[in-house]
# Entry
Amino acid sequence: MANEIHLDIHKILKLLPHRYPILLVDRVLELDPRVRIKALKNVTANEPFFQGHFPDYPVMPGVLLLEALAQASALLAFSEKTEEDAIYFFAGIDNARFKKPVIPGDQLILNAEVERYKSGIWKFKAFATVADDMVCQADLLCAIRKKEQ
# Structure
């Protein structure tokens, strides 16, 4: 694709308000603005959630898989110029399914496609894979709102 864009962590930090330990996107591998995104999260053994989920068998929590997909979706929404005081919120999650556990050492590939956009509400079809195996999928609704001062 001639329009394809790649983003490193420095650009991601400019686009997303998230910071460690909740920033869950390390790199954008492919980005076709307002169409689709493919991003990467390296899952490491020193992630803080692994201390308690679960100490003897570390598994990335499903809610964080969904958050990672939402962050990738936000990068897709923000791939076009967005107002400086805008913030991106979850509005809904439908059809979430968890197929396989994500463990330390996995490279999580985050994919999202725009299904529609209307009046500041985005709908995405999103899924995550590890080594080409589906680990999570969901339909995400997200809203862009102005930050309240």
User: Anything to note?
Assistant: The CA atoms of residues 38 and 111 lie 5 Å apart. The chain has a mean pLDDT of 92.
